[in-house]
Protein backbone atom coordinates (compact mmCIF):
# COMPACT_ATOMS: atom_id res chain seq x y z
CA UNK A 1 0.00 0.00 0.00
CA UNK A 2 1.47 3.37 -1.05
CA UNK A 3 1.38 6.03 1.64
CA UNK A 4 0.85 9.66 0.68
CA UNK A 5 0.15 12.73 2.77
CA UNK A 6 -3.55 12.25 2.09
CA UNK A 7 -3.33 8.67 3.32
CA UNK A 8 -1.58 9.68 6.52
CA UNK A 9 -4.06 12.49 7.15
CA UNK A 10 -6.98 10.09 6.61
CA UNK A 11 -5.51 7.63 9.11
CA UNK A 12 -5.02 10.40 11.70
CA UNK A 13 -8.55 11.71 11.19
CA UNK A 14 -9.93 8.19 11.64
CA UNK A 15 -7.91 7.72 14.84
CA UNK A 16 -9.27 11.00 16.20
CA UNK A 17 -12.81 9.84 15.46
CA UNK A 18 -12.26 6.51 17.21
CA UNK A 19 -10.66 8.18 20.24
CA UNK A 20 -13.29 10.89 20.83
CA UNK A 21 -16.06 8.76 22.41
CA UNK A 22 -13.49 7.04 24.63
CA UNK A 23 -12.12 10.40 25.73
CA UNK A 24 -15.54 11.88 26.53
CA UNK A 25 -16.73 8.87 28.54
CA UNK A 26 -13.40 8.45 30.38
CA UNK A 27 -13.29 12.11 31.43
CA UNK A 28 -16.76 11.77 32.92
CA UNK A 29 -15.80 8.60 34.77
CA UNK A 30 -12.62 10.24 36.04
CA UNK A 31 -14.69 12.91 37.82
CA UNK A 32 -16.96 10.15 39.15
CA UNK A 33 -14.04 8.26 40.61
CA UNK A 34 -12.30 11.35 41.95
CA UNK A 35 -15.44 11.83 44.06
CA UNK A 36 -15.29 8.20 45.22
CA UNK A 37 -18.04 6.85 42.94
CA UNK A 38 -17.29 3.75 40.86
CA UNK A 39 -19.84 3.52 38.06
CA UNK A 40 -19.38 0.45 35.85
CA UNK A 41 -22.45 1.42 33.86
CA UNK A 42 -20.60 3.49 31.23
CA UNK A 43 -21.45 1.05 28.46
CA UNK A 44 -25.15 1.22 29.30
CA UNK A 45 -25.22 5.01 29.53
CA UNK A 46 -23.29 5.36 26.27
CA UNK A 47 -25.55 3.08 24.27
CA UNK A 48 -28.72 4.72 25.62
CA UNK A 49 -27.23 8.10 24.73
CA UNK A 50 -26.49 6.81 21.23
CA UNK A 51 -30.00 5.55 20.54
CA UNK A 52 -31.74 8.54 22.12
CA UNK A 53 -29.60 10.95 20.11
CA UNK A 54 -30.32 9.14 16.86
CA UNK A 55 -34.04 8.82 17.63
CA UNK A 56 -34.27 12.54 18.44
CA UNK A 57 -32.38 13.62 15.32
CA UNK A 58 -34.45 11.45 13.00
CA UNK A 59 -37.65 12.67 14.68
CA UNK A 60 -36.89 16.39 14.85
CA UNK A 61 -34.10 16.93 12.33
CA UNK A 62 -32.13 18.89 14.94
CA UNK A 63 -28.62 17.74 15.82
CA UNK A 64 -28.56 20.10 18.81
CA UNK A 65 -31.69 18.50 20.25
CA UNK A 66 -30.20 15.08 19.59
CA UNK A 67 -27.05 15.88 21.54
CA UNK A 68 -29.02 17.46 24.40
CA UNK A 69 -31.36 14.46 24.56
CA UNK A 70 -28.36 12.13 24.77
CA UNK A 71 -26.86 14.17 27.62
CA UNK A 72 -30.17 14.11 29.52
CA UNK A 73 -30.62 10.38 28.97
CA UNK A 74 -27.13 9.73 30.34
CA UNK A 75 -27.90 11.89 33.35
CA UNK A 76 -31.19 10.04 33.91
CA UNK A 77 -29.36 6.72 33.92
CA UNK A 78 -26.75 8.13 36.30
CA UNK A 79 -29.52 9.45 38.56
CA UNK A 80 -30.96 5.95 38.89
CA UNK A 81 -27.50 4.61 39.68
CA UNK A 82 -26.90 7.38 42.23
CA UNK A 83 -30.20 6.85 43.99
CA UNK A 84 -29.55 3.13 44.33
CA UNK A 85 -25.92 3.42 45.44
CA UNK A 86 -25.74 6.71 47.31
CA UNK A 87 -29.19 6.94 48.87
CA UNK A 88 -30.08 3.24 49.23
CA UNK A 89 -26.44 2.12 49.68
CA UNK A 90 -26.58 -0.72 47.15
CA UNK A 91 -23.30 -2.19 45.95
CA UNK A 92 -21.72 0.09 43.34
CA UNK A 93 -20.14 -2.69 41.27
CA UNK A 94 -23.30 -4.79 41.04
CA UNK A 95 -25.49 -1.74 40.35
CA UNK A 96 -23.16 -0.52 37.61
CA UNK A 97 -23.21 -3.91 35.90
CA UNK A 98 -27.02 -3.97 36.13
CA UNK A 99 -27.13 -0.49 34.61
CA UNK A 100 -25.13 -1.69 31.61
CA UNK A 101 -27.37 -4.71 31.07
CA UNK A 102 -30.46 -2.51 31.40
CA UNK A 103 -29.06 0.08 29.00
CA UNK A 104 -28.26 -2.49 26.32
CA UNK A 105 -31.77 -3.92 26.53
CA UNK A 106 -33.46 -0.52 26.57
CA UNK A 107 -31.45 0.67 23.56
CA UNK A 108 -32.49 -2.39 21.56
CA UNK A 109 -36.13 -1.68 22.37
CA UNK A 110 -35.95 2.02 21.44
CA UNK A 111 -33.82 1.41 18.37
CA UNK A 112 -35.90 -1.37 16.85
CA UNK A 113 -37.56 1.02 14.38
CA UNK A 114 -34.35 2.96 13.64
CA UNK A 115 -32.36 0.23 11.90
CA UNK A 116 -31.65 1.12 8.28
CA UNK A 117 -32.33 4.85 8.64
CA UNK A 118 -29.54 7.03 7.24
CA UNK A 119 -28.22 10.28 8.70
CA UNK A 120 -25.72 12.64 7.08
CA UNK A 121 -23.78 13.15 10.32
CA UNK A 122 -22.93 16.19 12.41
CA UNK A 123 -21.71 19.22 10.42
CA UNK A 124 -17.94 19.55 10.14
CA UNK A 125 -15.92 22.65 10.90
CA UNK A 126 -15.26 24.60 7.71
CA UNK A 127 -12.87 27.54 7.97
CA UNK A 128 -12.11 29.20 4.61
CA UNK A 129 -8.49 28.65 3.48
CA UNK A 130 -7.53 26.71 6.65
CA UNK A 131 -9.70 23.70 5.84
CA UNK A 132 -8.20 23.56 2.34
CA UNK A 133 -4.59 23.41 3.56
CA UNK A 134 -2.84 20.17 2.56
CA UNK A 135 -2.56 17.63 5.39
CA UNK A 136 -3.01 20.15 8.24
CA UNK A 137 -6.39 21.29 6.98
CA UNK A 138 -7.76 17.75 7.00
CA UNK A 139 -6.14 16.75 10.31
CA UNK A 140 -7.00 19.88 12.32
CA UNK A 141 -9.99 21.54 10.68
CA UNK A 142 -12.20 18.78 9.34
CA UNK A 143 -13.95 17.61 12.51
CA UNK A 144 -17.28 18.33 14.16
CA UNK A 145 -17.74 20.34 17.35
CA UNK A 146 -17.70 17.31 19.68
CA UNK A 147 -14.09 16.47 18.74
CA UNK A 148 -12.91 19.95 19.71
CA UNK A 149 -15.10 19.87 22.81
CA UNK A 150 -13.46 16.62 23.96
CA UNK A 151 -9.99 18.20 23.70
CA UNK A 152 -11.16 21.33 25.51
CA UNK A 153 -12.59 19.20 28.33
CA UNK A 154 -9.18 17.66 29.00
CA UNK A 155 -7.80 21.10 29.87
CA UNK A 156 -11.01 22.16 31.64
CA UNK A 157 -10.98 19.02 33.80
CA UNK A 158 -7.32 19.48 34.68
CA UNK A 159 -7.95 23.09 35.66
CA UNK A 160 -11.07 22.20 37.66
CA UNK A 161 -9.37 19.47 39.67
CA UNK A 162 -6.13 21.33 40.37
CA UNK A 163 -6.95 25.04 40.39
CA UNK A 164 -10.45 25.45 41.82
CA UNK A 165 -11.90 25.12 45.29
CA UNK A 166 -14.73 22.93 43.97
CA UNK A 167 -12.20 20.56 42.44
CA UNK A 168 -10.28 20.40 45.72
CA UNK A 169 -13.49 19.61 47.61
CA UNK A 170 -14.38 16.90 45.09
CA UNK A 171 -10.97 15.29 45.52
CA UNK A 172 -11.26 15.57 49.31
CA UNK A 173 -14.58 13.69 49.22
CA UNK A 174 -12.96 10.94 47.16
CA UNK A 175 -9.93 10.67 49.43
CA UNK A 176 -11.67 10.79 52.81
CA UNK A 177 -15.44 11.22 52.87
CA UNK A 178 -15.54 11.14 56.68
CA UNK A 179 -13.03 13.98 56.97
CA UNK A 180 -14.86 16.00 54.31
CA UNK A 181 -18.17 15.44 56.11
CA UNK A 182 -16.67 16.42 59.47
CA UNK A 183 -15.77 19.88 58.17
CA UNK A 184 -19.22 20.44 56.70
CA UNK A 185 -19.08 19.33 53.06
CA UNK A 186 -22.22 17.54 51.75
CA UNK A 187 -20.63 14.27 50.62
CA UNK A 188 -23.76 12.69 49.14
CA UNK A 189 -24.72 15.84 47.23
CA UNK A 190 -21.21 16.18 45.78
CA UNK A 191 -21.22 12.55 44.71
CA UNK A 192 -24.64 12.93 43.12
CA UNK A 193 -23.36 15.87 41.09
CA UNK A 194 -20.21 13.99 40.05
CA UNK A 195 -22.27 10.98 39.00
CA UNK A 196 -24.67 13.13 36.97
CA UNK A 197 -21.72 14.77 35.22
CA UNK A 198 -20.30 11.36 34.42
CA UNK A 199 -23.66 10.30 33.00
CA UNK A 200 -23.85 13.44 30.87
CA UNK A 201 -20.40 12.78 29.39
CA UNK A 202 -21.23 9.13 28.70
CA UNK A 203 -24.46 10.15 26.97
CA UNK A 204 -22.48 12.67 24.92
CA UNK A 205 -20.00 9.96 23.96
CA UNK A 206 -22.90 7.83 22.77
CA UNK A 207 -24.29 10.73 20.76
CA UNK A 208 -20.94 11.10 19.01
CA UNK A 209 -21.01 7.44 18.04
CA UNK A 210 -24.46 7.46 16.43
CA UNK A 211 -24.41 10.99 15.01
CA UNK A 212 -20.81 11.34 13.81
CA UNK A 213 -18.51 8.32 14.03
CA UNK A 214 -21.05 5.92 12.49
CA UNK A 215 -24.12 8.06 11.70
CA UNK A 216 -26.65 5.28 12.00
CA UNK A 217 -28.16 3.00 14.59
CA UNK A 218 -27.19 -0.64 15.17
CA UNK A 219 -27.62 -2.86 18.21
CA UNK A 220 -24.56 -2.95 20.47
CA UNK A 221 -22.89 -0.20 18.47
CA UNK A 222 -20.81 0.83 21.50
CA UNK A 223 -19.05 -2.55 21.14
CA UNK A 224 -17.36 -2.49 24.54
CA UNK A 225 -16.15 1.10 24.37
CA UNK A 226 -17.59 1.79 27.82
CA UNK A 227 -15.34 -0.88 29.31
CA UNK A 228 -12.32 0.51 27.45
CA UNK A 229 -13.14 3.97 28.84
CA UNK A 230 -13.21 2.50 32.35
CA UNK A 231 -9.80 0.94 31.78
CA UNK A 232 -8.53 4.27 30.44
CA UNK A 233 -9.15 5.96 33.79
CA UNK A 234 -6.97 3.38 35.52
CA UNK A 235 -4.38 3.54 32.73
CA UNK A 236 -4.28 7.32 33.16
CA UNK A 237 -3.77 7.00 36.92
CA UNK A 238 -6.70 9.39 37.33
CA UNK A 239 -4.98 12.22 35.40
CA UNK A 240 -6.86 13.95 32.54
CA UNK A 241 -3.76 14.47 30.37
CA UNK A 242 -3.04 10.75 30.46
CA UNK A 243 -6.66 10.03 29.60
CA UNK A 244 -6.09 12.01 26.40
CA UNK A 245 -2.96 10.01 25.59
CA UNK A 246 -4.63 6.70 26.36
CA UNK A 247 -7.76 7.50 24.33
CA UNK A 248 -5.70 8.25 21.24
CA UNK A 249 -3.57 5.16 21.79
CA UNK A 250 -6.67 2.95 21.96
CA UNK A 251 -8.12 4.86 19.01
CA UNK A 252 -5.04 3.91 17.03
CA UNK A 253 -5.40 0.25 18.01
CA UNK A 254 -9.06 0.33 16.97
CA UNK A 255 -8.13 1.72 13.57
CA UNK A 256 -5.43 -0.93 13.22
CA UNK A 257 -8.03 -3.66 13.59
CA UNK A 258 -10.26 -1.94 11.03
CA UNK A 259 -7.57 -1.36 8.42
CA UNK A 260 -5.01 -4.05 9.23
CA UNK A 261 -5.63 -6.05 6.09
CA UNK A 262 -5.44 -2.93 3.92
CA UNK A 263 -2.12 -2.03 5.54
CA UNK A 264 -0.74 -5.38 4.43
CA UNK A 265 -0.67 -7.09 7.84
CA UNK A 266 -0.74 -10.85 7.38
CA UNK A 267 -2.73 -11.42 10.55
CA UNK A 268 -6.12 -13.15 10.94
CA UNK A 269 -8.97 -10.62 11.00
CA UNK A 270 -10.34 -12.21 14.19
CA UNK A 271 -7.09 -11.39 16.00
CA UNK A 272 -7.18 -7.80 14.79
CA UNK A 273 -10.78 -7.47 15.99
CA UNK A 274 -9.82 -8.47 19.51
CA UNK A 275 -6.81 -6.11 19.64
CA UNK A 276 -8.52 -3.20 21.48
CA UNK A 277 -9.83 -5.51 24.20
CA UNK A 278 -6.57 -7.44 24.45
CA UNK A 279 -4.75 -4.13 24.83
CA UNK A 280 -7.20 -3.15 27.59
CA UNK A 281 -6.39 -6.31 29.55
CA UNK A 282 -2.63 -5.93 29.04
CA UNK A 283 -2.70 -2.29 30.18
CA UNK A 284 -4.66 -3.13 33.33
CA UNK A 285 -2.30 -6.00 34.21
CA UNK A 286 0.83 -3.89 33.68
CA UNK A 287 -0.49 -1.00 35.72
CA UNK A 288 -1.67 -3.25 38.54
CA UNK A 289 1.92 -4.51 38.85
CA UNK A 290 3.02 -0.92 39.38
CA UNK A 291 0.78 -0.51 42.42
CA UNK A 292 -1.64 1.85 40.74
CA UNK A 293 -3.77 1.81 43.87
CA UNK A 294 -1.42 4.48 45.21
CA UNK A 295 -3.06 6.80 42.68
CA UNK A 296 -6.67 5.70 43.15
CA UNK A 297 -8.93 7.82 45.39
CA UNK A 298 -8.85 6.20 48.84
CA UNK A 299 -12.65 6.03 49.18
CA UNK A 300 -13.35 4.81 45.65
CA UNK A 301 -16.39 2.55 45.69
CA UNK A 302 -16.82 2.78 49.45
CA UNK A 303 -20.30 3.62 50.79
CA UNK A 304 -20.73 6.72 52.91
CA UNK A 305 -23.10 6.74 55.88
CA UNK A 306 -24.09 10.26 56.93
CA UNK A 307 -24.54 9.08 60.52
CA UNK A 308 -20.73 8.87 60.80
TrEMBL record:
Organism (species): Thiosulfativibrio zosterae
Please give the start and end residues of each transmembrane region: 6-25, 37-57, 63-84, 96-119, 139-161, 192-211, 223-240, 247-265, 271-287
Q: Give the protein name, as stated in the record.
A: ABC transporter permease
Q: Where in the cell is it found?
A: Cell inner membrane
Q: What is its main location?
A: membrane
The way this protein sits in the membrane is described as: Multi-pass membrane protein
Q: What molecular function terms (GO) are annotated for this protein?
A: transmembrane transporter activity
Q: Kindly state one GO CC term assigned in the UniProt record.
A: plasma membrane
Is Cell membrane given among the entry's keywords? Answer: yes
Keywords, comma-separated and alphabetical: Cell membrane, Membrane, Transmembrane, Transmembrane helix
